[in-house]
Amino acid sequence: MIARFSALVALVALASGTTPREPHRPAGGTISGKVTFTGTPPKAKPIDMSKEPNCVTQHPTPVTTEDAVTGPGNSVRYVVVYIAAGDQGAAPATDTVRYDQKGCQYIPHVAAMQVHQPLTIYNDDPHSHNIHPLARVNAEWNKSQPKGAPPIRTAWDEPEFIALKCNVHPWMHGYFAVLSTPHFAVTDSSGAFSLSGLPPGKYTVTAWHERFGTQSLEVTIAGSETKPANFVLTARPY
Amino acid sequence: MGRLFAVVVTVIALVSAAIFALHVWWLPPDISAHGSRIDRQLNETMVTAGILFVAAQLALGLFVWRFDVRDGMPPRAVKTFPGGVTPLVVLAILFVGIEILVLTFVGSKVWASVYQTPAPAEALQIEVEAEQFAFYFRYAGPDGKFGTMHPDLMNDATQNFFGLDPANDTTARDDIVVGTLVIPVNQPIDLRLHAKDVNHSFYVPELRIQQDFVPGMVIPLHFTATQTGKYELVCTQLCGLGHYNMRAYIEVKTPADFAQWLKAQAATS
Amino acid sequence: MTHTTAHPPAHAQRQSFLRKHVFSVDHKVIGRQYLDLALVAVVTGMVLSWLMRFHLGWPDTPVPLLGKLAPTGAAGGVMTPEYYLELMTMHGTIMVFFVLTTAPFAGFGNYFLPIHVGAEDMAFPRINMMSFWVTLLAFLVLVAAFFVGDGPPLSGWTAYAPLSAVGKDAGPGQGSGQTLWAISIGIFCIAQLLGSLNFIATTLDLRTKGMSLARLPYATWAWFVTAVIALVAFAVLLPACILLILDRVAGTSFFIPGGLVISDRLQPHMGGSPLLWQHLFWFFGHPEVYVAILPGFGIISQILPVFARKPLLGPRVFIACLVAIAFLSYTVWGHHMFLSGMNPFSATLFSVPTLVITIPAAIITLLWIGTVYGARLRLTSASLFALGFVSVFVSGGISGFFLAQPSTDIYLHGTYFVVAHFHFVMGVAAMFGIFAGTYFWFPKMFGRMMSETLGKWHFWLTFIGVYCIFMPMHYLGLAGNVRRYSAFTDDYLQPLIPLHRFITIAALFTGAVQLIFLFNLIRSRLRGPKAADNPWEATTLEWSTSSPPPHDNFGGRRPTVAYGPNEYGVAGPAGRDYVMQAAAQ
Ligand code: HEM
Ligand SMILES: [Cu+2]
Ligand SMILES: [Cu+2]
Fold first, then answer.
1. In this structure, what CATH number is given to the domain that contains residue C445?
2. Interhelix angle for C430-446 vs C27-57, to 10°?
3. Is C131's pLDDT higher than 90?
4. Mean pLDDT score of chain B, rounded to an integer?
């Protein structure tokens, strides 16, 4: 129950586009904005989970693919926005990132974290999953987590966007965005993000999306101000 | 001790055989057009093999009972088997030989009817892609044509299980890809089996059908289901950690239901 | 038995401890080393099977301590599916190669074949020593796979490509563990090739005076025929393993076709054939099951007459059947591949010799049963296991009829019916052969008798136990229960779980019973009653020398053979009912 509740908290916090530890940072500048697209995005496809009846019953309305989630006003969800250059560096984060497998879905679809930040992966389903991060820079691994097995505790050593898959349920697909900066966010369902606690300086802000590519902007922060940064990514239907 | 052996062997043989004979555990009911012939072949083999099994075990038990030397028995001379070795050899060659001939003649016909005859022309074509650890099925869609498969485009993340190229290949745009094999009853089904990564196998006990998927090969397989209902298709060729969980459901529908289902799918894809 | 055993003082040359007990060229020491290796291997394999069986009965229940032993494979004591498959692969590989090839063939064969033919040693003693150490090396390489970072292999003892060939993309167990597997089996092939050559040369060239082929004891006939089979079979597996290793480490594509996408990655291979591996493997694999079982045939045919006190029925027929099986064994490999995607027409072709091979097998079985007829049967641990062998061999052989026909194999292939079949013939029957051989020859090898009481308990509990384990697996197979599954999550398998639990309990029980055997082995070796030279009143040459035999087997005087091995139930000298092969001196 407690685990469920904290999962929910983590989920809400992550979905709202800020990482839970953001409030503890010293005051500073903030960069916030929105990610949108031009062009035609692919259609969200319904996911056929029929091989795992457990998961079918968990989703009264069928879930759809999350590799390109768009919203009103051409907003794009699950874009990782982070400081790619200009960062003065900070102590590595020590709070744990929680990642869940529930109803044969990865929750959240994209989890951003810092290098060496503790990551804990839970299986909340009454059956086995395998977790297969398709890392190329970091060490790749692939391991089952049966029902009743303890959570997997791990961390990543190098910055990398790591695709994640479950071979047992081939539709299960997510990303770990491992970043060297402590300043990052994942856009919410309205495409919004906000990076706060930035000391004065000149920054390169990068937006990364698994299908729509990356885009960078230069932003200068002078004091405790809020600067806008809006990204427009190009979408293709296939 | 010899009596004990005889009793134990007899009990084992009879109990084992009885469980077979009473069908305590048995094949699920057959729902395929060809299956009854496989079942007949299996039953015939079961009867003859069962007789051989029980006869051999009982003979062994009986002889051990009869010829064991117990304490205090008067010494007696040994006897050779009546008639010596020749009748045994002749018996074995005749009995087993005839058995083999019969099984081969009948059995190879059954085999040939499933695996050596092409599917009838009116069969419904469905492509099957097996991968670690799921099956996906593809119907040609309204245009009746399958889009070409491009391994380099295969991607589970975007649900492009068959590596279709809808951007350039118009025949691929309306292909229907699903995770459940839905088929009409009493219509021949003609599958093409593709393996994306390693060996898998297509096994549906009720359909009395099994065939490996082999990477690099496209293997045809055809059958006709004769009863509506929901069944399980499972993988029987070791394919990795999720082998035990590699399955799909098969839904056999009436032709009307099937047509309706197909239409609904075409609308969404 | 005193007439041939006036042994001279311990064989002349003085040897260092190492030379005598470790790097010995004495075939008897080497035979015992093989048997000791097989004992270590069988205990390992059995413990693995307990873990597997427990998991199949109760997949979600943590196993105490296992979480500590295998923190990756069984975090918190709950086995992952891959760990189950890894244990299964190691179990199968260890059992087939390091128990069933090592004990009845290399072990007993090494010890007794030279004595049976009246030789002082093998034809090439140094090569013989080498073949043992190479076998041990192969075993160590295999066991090392337990300790490598990416875990033991999981593609089964058959290591089907491309799963076994493509490397880590295909999931856990496809890293260095799988490479070690291929290296280990390759090394093992070399050892067996050396060993087989030695067996063949010794049988053909070192027979003592009077030991014509017709007078060879039946176990030696079987070892000889087995060696011929092994020579060809391992000579095919060795290159197959080399090609597999190359695919894995050198980027070749012998077994890997183009266009494979594994875990969303297009593989950099093209042009290979997965079926090629299957053909090569089974060209070895089918003869290999005869390598496992034919020595058992020989041992049983040698033991039954001793305890029946009458000659083996139809000895020439027996040998003819052995030879027929050896030839046919090369023509049937395709019966493992009916559904593999090879041309379906060839299925019919492969099924015919497969069915034909049941004729010699059936004849041999009838010979054994016919030998019991009219016997003066002495039931000892050895003869009980020999009779048990006949029973389990019948049980396992019968199910072969179903799997030999493509039409019924459609349904049964890949199910527990197959597991039942090969465990009865290859597992249990071969093990019974080893047990019978052990109870029979232990007095000769160690000069002490084993406890008959313990031996009989061991027999009864094991005999009933193996039927409880393996007979129900046929029923599972008929119900369509797929093999190599680490859990039974399919809807149609749910009703079978109680039967799986029954099997698991029977397996744990039968496993525990083997402790009686271990205890008996160790205690008898230390303080069993002293054995006479010929405690069972048998005819073959090992029983004319002392227990244990001296270094050169016959104390400096090679025996002259005057009779066949089958002289039981006759009016022998001094009122005995048998005549020994060695002419009285
Ligand atoms: C204590 C007795 C034994 C038990 C309880 C046992 C149990 C098992 C089990 C549970 C499996 C896995 C079946 C599956 O998941 O498909 C298996 C596989 C196997 N066993 Fe045994 N076994 C025993 C003895 C033996 C012996 C003596 C042999 C020697 C031939 C043997 C050879 C094999 C082989 C070759 C496999 C197949 C492995 C594979 O699929 O790659 N087993 N055994
Ligand atoms: Cu999963
Ligand atoms: Cu599979």
1. 1.20.210.10
2. 140
3. yes
4. 93
Question: Which residue(s) pair with A122 in the sheet?
Answer: A100
Global ipTM: 0.96
Q: What is the DSSP letter of A62?
A: P
Which residues on chain C are in Cβ contact (under 8 Å) with A163?
Answer: 264
Atom of ligand 1 minimally distant from the CA of C99 = 29
A12-50 per-position pLDDT tens digit: 444 444 444 444 455 689 999 999 999 999 888 889 999
The percentage of residues in chain C with a pLDDT greater than 90, rounded to a whole number, is 88
Residues with Cβ < 8 Å from A93, sequence gap 6 or more? Answer: A21, A113, A114, A117, A182
The answer to whether C568 touches C371, Cβ cutoff 8 Å, is no
Q: Are residues A150 and C76, on separate chains, in Cβ contact within 8 Å?
A: yes
Binding site membership of C222 for ligand 1 (Cβ less than 6 Å): no
Question: Would you say domain A91-180 falls under CATH 2.60.40.420?
Answer: yes
A25-89+185-238: CATH superfamily: Carboxypeptidase-like, regulatory domain (2.60.40.1120)
The two three-digit tokens of residue C134, written as one number:
């190479």
- Our count of domains for chain C comes to 1
DSSP line for C541-573:
GGGGS-SSPPTTSSTT----B-S-TT-BSS--G
Instruction: Give every CB contact of residue C526 below 8 A, 6+ residues apart in sequence.
Output: none
C114 domain residue, yes or no: yes
CA-closest candidate to residue C78, choices C57, C62, C90? C62
CA B125 to centroid of chain Cα atoms? 21
The overall pTM is greater than 0.90? yes
Nearest in space to C261 (alpha carbons), one of B45, B163, B30:
B163
Separation of CA B239 and ligand 3 centre (Å): 5
What pLDDT was estimated at residue C9? 41
Instruction: Give chain B's end-to-end CA distance (angstroms, integer).
Output: 74
* CB C305 within 8 Å of CB C538: no
Looking at residue A200, the DSSP 8-state letter turns out to be S
Helices assigned H by DSSP within chain B: 2-21, 35-67, 85-115, 170-173, 255-268
Ligand 1 neighbour C52 (Cβ under 6 A): yes
- Residue C571 placed within a domain: yes
Q: Is residue C3 in a domain?
A: no
Residues of A in contact with C75 (CB under 8 A): 149-150, 152
In the A/B pair of chains, how many CB contacts fall below 8 A?
A: 62
Phi, psi for residue A100 in degrees, rounded to 5: -120, 145
Task: Give the Cα separation of A225 and B74 in Å (integer).
Answer: 114
In the predicted model, is pLDDT for residue C560 greater than 90?
yes
Where in chain A are the domains? 25-89+185-238, 91-180
| Token pair in block for residue A69 | 């989630």
Q: What share of chain C is helix, strand, coil (3-state, %, to 5)?
A: 65, 0, 30
Query: Are C264 and A134 a contacting pair at CB < 8 A?
Result: yes
Structural domain boundaries enclosing C299 = 30-256+271-575
- From the CB of C469, is ligand 1 less than 6 Å away? yes
**What is the distance between the alpha carbons of residues A173 and A111, in angstroms, rounded to a whole number?**
12
Helix (H, G, I), strand (E, B), or coil: what is residue C90? helix
Is C263 in Cβ contact with A132 (below 8 Å)?
Answer: yes
Residue C264 lies in a domain: no
C345 contacts in B (CB within 8 Å)? 116
